[in-house]
């Protein structure tokens, strides 16, 4: 089987960086991208190609980048939408521009990048589109509403896209990690601000302290996460013989929290189900 070609966004650190390393180690071809291509120049030493890509660029720019990427190896088999950032803040204090910044990268960046590569995948009637979501799509955190909202949006967008692409032969995979030791919580990747309002200050101070204490102590191993993602795409190791998952939690914390959320939702339906159904004609 000929090597598959992967394009990964946001590869300067974290999941993106480890994915590129794992892709190359498994014998596939990787195109690593970042806003500042010099930050990923070292990946050429392991055999990856590099390409400058800012997912917040206009659609026509992303379309040209897709063409440039395809020309490197002649195809793109797997697109990994990994680029993202987070900003802490109470909803009342975060401006429209703050929210828009989160959505421009985490949602519109992923959607627009996917749109740029879909014509190529449709013409081949094959391909895989991967979105790196988050556990927080299932249960919002205080002072993290904008980031949680972006990951919830990606969750729904990925589920809808899967139904559009499955008849064509293109698969989607939504990966929803728990807490992994990435650069996401490091400044300036994660912007923090204690509330200026006394009412919110206890919440925001607690959240900021918890994040600072947690940073560097997250339970998830990014190397293992990269291995599991590649396992699924290639149907190898622990993924061999299993059906395509569509959505995959990563990390024991993600599995536990999502199960707890689902159980709580079922309990709510048990209590409120008849009341809710009483609105039918």
Radius of gyration: 20 Å
Name the helicity range.
40-55%
Question: What is the 3D form?
Answer: globular
Strand order of the largest sheet: 3-2-1-4-6-7-9
Total of helices:
7
Class per helix and strand makeup: alpha/beta
Provide mean pLDDT, rounded: 92
E-strand count: 9
Q: What's the SSE pattern? A: EHEEHEEHEHEEHHEH
Taking the sheet with the most strands, its summary is: 7 strands, parallel
Beta-strand share of residues = 5-15%
Flag low-confidence runs. none
The end-to-end span amounts to: 57 Å
Give your account of this protein's structure.
The chain has helices at 14-25, 59-73, 96-124, 145-165, 201-214, 222-234, 252-277, and strands spanning 5-8, 29-34, 49-52, 78-81, 86-87, 127-132, 170-177, 190-191, 247-250. With 281 residues, the protein is α/β, with parallel strands linked by helices. Strands 3-2-1-4-6-7-9 form a 7-stranded parallel beta sheet, with helices on both faces. Strands 5-8 form a two-stranded parallel sheet. α4 (145-165) links the parallel β6 (127-132) and β7. α1 packs across α6, α2 packs across α3 (96-124) and α3 packs parallel to α4. The radius of gyration is 20 Å and the shape is globular. The N and C termini lie far apart (57 Å).
Provide key terms for this protein.
281 residues, alpha/beta, two-stranded parallel ribbon, 7 helices, globular
């Amino acid at each position: 089987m000929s090597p598959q070609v992967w394009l990964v966004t946001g590869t300067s650190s974290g999941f993106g960086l480890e994915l590129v390393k794992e892709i190359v180690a498994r014998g596939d071809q990787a195109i690593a991208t970042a806003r500042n291509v010099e930050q990923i120049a070292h990946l050429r030493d392991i055999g990856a190609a590099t390409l400058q890509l800012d997912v917040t660029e206009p659609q026509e720019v992303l379309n040209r980048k897709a063409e440039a990427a395809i020309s490197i190896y002649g195809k793109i088999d797997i697109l990994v939408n990994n680029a993202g950032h987070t900003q802490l803040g109470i909803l009342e204090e975060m401006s429209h521009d703050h929210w828009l910044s989160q959505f421009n990268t985490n949602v519109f960046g992923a959607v627009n990048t996917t749109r740029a590569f879909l014509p190529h995948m449709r013409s081949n009637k094959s391909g895989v589109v991967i979105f790196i979501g988050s556990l927080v799509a299932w249960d919002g955190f205080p002072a993290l509403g904008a980031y949680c909202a972006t990951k919830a949006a990606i969750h729904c967008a990925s589920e809808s896209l899967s139904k559009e692409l499955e008849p064509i032969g293109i698969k989607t995979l939504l990966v929803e990690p728990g807490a992994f030791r990435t650069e996401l919580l490091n400044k300036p990747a994660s912007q923090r601000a204690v509330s200026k309002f006394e009412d919110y200050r206890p919440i925001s101070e607690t959240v900021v302290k918890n994040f600072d204490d947690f940073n560097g102590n997250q339970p998830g191993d990014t190397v293992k996460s990269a291995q599991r993602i590649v396992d699924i795409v290639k149907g190898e190791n622990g993924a061999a013989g299993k059906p395509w998952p569509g959505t995959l939690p990563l990390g024991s914390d993600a599995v536990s929290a999502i199960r707890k959320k689902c159980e709580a939702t079922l309990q709510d339906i048990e209590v409120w189900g008849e009341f809710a159904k009483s609105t039918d004609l």
